Hints:
This protein is of the alpha/beta class.
Amino acid sequence: xxxxxxxxxxxxxxKGRYRPFVYFLLPLSLIYHxxxxxxxKAYEHEIFKRHPINAPVIVVxxxxxxxxxxxxxxxxxxxxxxxxxxxxxxxxxxYGGRATMWPQQVRPDSDPIVVGDEALMMAINCKCPVAVxxxxxxxxxxxxxxxxxxxxxxxxxxxxxxxxxxxxIAVIDGIRRFGNCQLLPAGPLREPVNRLDTVDVxxxxxxxxxxxxxxxxxxKGIYNLCDDKDVRDIDSFKTKTVHAIAGIGNPERFFTHLKxxxxxIIKHPFPNHHKYRxxxxxxxxxxxxxxxxxxxxxxxxxxxxxxxYVKVVVKPQEQFTHKxxxxxxxxxxxxxxx
Length: 338
């Protein structure tokens, strides 16, 4: 289940509890802030070197710890670019993957233990190349050289300043926003909120404020883990109680979504990128089990016909689509040789 420590910090950051403990952590946050500033200056003055990429780079990231909907947005973005005539490739660090050789190209049949859950989820849903490497520029260069990609999308990496980028898209949680607005560890922020003043586009998953675009996650169907051709709509589960599993950055978002759809759920939150075991998803009853697609890629090997995942797609504002394509057009250079 979700660790006690993770739950404790979520209560501190987003619910305003245990304030004396937060105050105790503030000196560490000040040190963390100093490190951020020094690191930024080191890149600005070329003390630390950036790695140029021979193609436009779009970074999709956030400034908070935990999930905001970046990966579904990356999947949508790849589809948008392909429809517009580009040849995108996706790179990610492969968080949680245990590969011993890098970069790793990810395919729909790759092992999530090797490449990571989010990378495999993107490979399954995208019709473009996906590569993982803790050194993102190596993965990007491999996709450009081997797959002839002319645009690189990186899932996460807003704080990875060594990776040269042309367009920055920041995704925020429209409900939780920035919590107590403190930097780690006193708060959930990876960087100060004013970092958003320097990005090209801000998109909010849910409610948006001035200067932000909005997006929603809409369920496409409920898919059986043992047979992807067995697809049902949400109404099929409304008359019965179900187990709900989520090992994502913000499990409560998934649970709340199911409850709003009218489901009676038994919640089972797990830490982000949880490495599932059979006992985690098998229960001593005959109830169906619903989970996120990110969880499903790791649970297929020991799932049965009672296990289902909720497939979601991103629906951003139309103005967001226009903004991204305009920004890319301004930085895109037709490749002459790979």
